[in-house]
Fold each of these.
Amino acid sequence: MTLPARINGWVRVVPAWPIYILAVVNLLWEFWLALNGLRQYAVEPINVLERQYGEIALIMLIAGLFITPIRNWTGVNLVKYRRAIGLSAFLFVLAHFLVFAVLDVQSVSRVVTEVIKRPYVTVGFAAFVLLIPLAVTSNNRSIRKLGPVRWRKLHMLTYPIVVLSGLHYIWLVKGWPIEPFAYMAVILALLFVRIKWTGIRDYLAKRDASASS
Ligand code: HEM
């Protein structure tokens, strides 16, 4: 048995729900550490928590984008975990936004001002707003209601969302730290691969169609 076939065998028996548990436990653990000023939260815990949630959200959004190329290149099919990864990413984005709004700026009018005045907040907010329909439709009922084609089209929004998130990070840092640029490089590479793969798939479909007609 090949390695991808063996991994797919494991995937069949390992459920997706532990991802939700891990995400919630991690979110609460970071919150508890911040509440008690422990570890990296000794100084400016609110700001550090805000950044921590933002970074975890970005990593999870990117992780979700890896599932298709992994399947296309290796045959390992992790699609079963995509919904849990995406919804967990949304949970962290929501927590990131709530820490910003409730604990950091602490007023609705200041949230509005920050979103309007600071371009990096505008971009982050746009990514958050675009994520909402994806989170709301990440269930079997929505797939049935929208139909798989429309649902898939809607969920292609993940790509602009992740690009906006990467831009949000680059825009807010001062100087030239490597991290946000490394994330953006990975995001752009994934986008490139996706566009290229779609092009190849469409070409093969057209070729097969004209060969059989
Ligand atoms: C998909 C949505 C979003 C993602 C993936 C995201 C991700 C991030 C990341 C990775 C950071 C930097 C973390 C670090 O320095 O290690 C960050 C910082 C920040 N984000 Fe977001 N973000 C999103 C949405 C938002 C929204 C909706 C707001 C507010 C309206 C927001 C406000 C901020 C602020 C104020 C900071 C900087 C905190 C500081 O250092 O003062 N973000 N975000």
Amino acid sequence: MSDTFQISASALSEMIDHCKADYPNEACGYLAGRDGAATTAVRMTNAHASPSSYEMEGAEQAKVQREMRLKNLEHLAIYHSHVATAAYPSRRDIDRATAIQDFFDGCYVLVTLKDATPGVRAFRVRDNAVEELEVQEV
Ligand SMILES: [Zn+2]
């Protein structure tokens, strides 16, 4: 199991731009790519439109997953922003990741906008345990 999360500079800036655009609400989306490296950020709608939670719509997720399959892209991560707290999974984030771990075994990327410079961290969550991965720009 890899201890790094690889992401291209363009995917990183697409993701951060999306998080800034949806501020003050949390933003959410997918990171997709090939050979374990994320090369594209897919913006998703936060159905909660909330500064403290997010929910992706099932229909939109199904559509995006279909598009990724057609492009031979792997779904590597789910990202979302925290507007006032650290880029670390909340209790709710950990519970949710554990609940879907048999369906999605990718990573979780958190973007914090609480400081002037956005912070990005990546994690793997299994059985309520959080393991941090080093974010590596490729
Ligand atoms: Zn969260």
Amino acid sequence: MSGAKSSSAIETTGTAEAVRPYRGRFAPTPSGPLHFGSLVAALASYLEARAHRGEWLVRIEDIDPPRERPGAADQILSQLERLGLHWDGPVLRQSTRNDAYQDAIDRLLRLGMLRRCTCSRAALAALPENRARAPGEDLYHPAECVGIEPGLAGRHALRLRVPDRDIEFLDRAQGPQSGNVARTHGDFVLRRRDGLYAYQLAVVVDDASQGILDIVRGMDLLTSTPRQILVQDALGFARVSYMHVPLAVDESGRKLSKSDDAPVVALAGPGLQLAAALEFLGQRPPADLWRAGAAEVLQWGVANWRPDGFEGVTTRPVPDAGRREAAKQEG
Ligand SMILES: [Zn+2]
């Protein structure tokens, strides 16, 4: 199906770059409902797109069934609707895109840019370079494979061969960035041993095919960016621009878990949630906006959008929306 489709997508990307219309996106993983951190990413990408009079697309990143929760995708979409974050065009679901991902893999194989690997996660986790990494974190792969398991000869992952050099890019919120993937991750997985396509591949193929040239997302994905640039370069796609927005943390600086921020999203109405997210993004919503409906808050947000409100900010505590909610009820 998508042989012709992906090549026309590349041409579209080239054309889009010449004209440079703004097209942004929000791409949640359906592992649960939107929490405050994902609301911030959705709102920032929406405002950046609308402030540029651009399009804003939504893509559901459902390529990893074990991480997903049934019903979560529909729950996220209905939350976005309730927040007034209306998207353009159809929602793209990654679970429908395997042909496009396999086309990309086939091209990289033909170019000799992939290596087969039978390393188990356990064997990689035991390496000194990986001992400090948290469970679930991406692991470093050394130049030579380790721990080849008998009986797994037919099952292998495909990893991108990465050059030992700094990948540099200018983040529109965080400034100049640089990362050497060979040192931080080594050759990294594009198709897993279980046959599933890796996030780092799917996100790049989909952004190119959807003509996305401007990505606004949370700081937790900053460390993925050099790897995604390598995949773009390997596939001959246009480079895109990045803006990484601060990560919501609790008072002790830890990344929020879904239960931590439940009060912000579960108890507050849509207008108040959006106002809290605006404040988090350094947008200084006026006092009366905290009592407004979602549409009015978004209208103010687009008209007053100032990305320098979070320039250089990597984390921020969640605003006390509970206090705001109480003030609203008293007022
Ligand atoms: Zn290996």
Amino acid sequence: MKVSNGQMGRRILGFAVAATALAAAGAAYAGTLGQPAPWEMTLQPSASPVMDSITWFHHFMLTIIVAITLFVLALLIIVAVKFNSKSNPVPSKTTHNTVIEVVWTIVPVLILVAIAVPSFRLLFQQLDIPKADLTIKATGKQWYWSYAYPDNGKFEFDSLMVADKQPRLLAVDNEVVVPVNKVIRIQTTGADVIHSFAIPAFGIKIDAIPGRLNETWFKATKEGMFYGQCSELCGKDHAFMPIAVKVVSDQEFAAWVEAAKKKFASNPSNSFASIGTAAQ
Ligand SMILES: [Cu+2]
């Protein structure tokens, strides 16, 4: 098939228009704060400093990847159009070009260094936990989460999915409540099998492993409801053990703690996990 330069130009323009339309659609379908949205194409809106960094790093990487892909595509098109057997019947016998060989070695090294620096900075931000204002222990169980507040009177409660509450498959009976703009340390473990504690808007995902206590942290910068899910295939109801975090002001948090201490205090049969033991 003979393709003229004009046709090729129109095709490239077509691809560019399609790509721009796709990107615009992506921006239009950027999710709702704290939960997934239909047709969402990008990351959930950020609500923590770590997620801000993850979002920035994602855009940074995407820019580099798109630039490299377009560059390689342009080279391929040039080669295919200019150096096919029809337009270039007598090929050149060139085998070496020192300048270009030095360039295609040095430039990728520089690109990798440019990626490595912010990548390590992000890893340190995630793994180096700042001084925590509050610690919450999240225990993954088949198939729900239990939360303990050791700093606030050591109460514990279970959080189970509620089938007829919105958002569907994400709403729970007892939400985790945390104060806004405070460093929350999450300690997580598994009571039976490996689960994973993940909340996209806070940029956290950490395995909950039996016999181990893993730590991560977040600082919620916005008030509201934030949802996550168990992110390690853990059994038949893996899809039905959501994580719901309610971010509130300091005063509301203090009031909730007082109410929760009474609600979840003393009576072990309050705990779904302890029902079996209490009955014996
Ligand atoms: Cu699980």
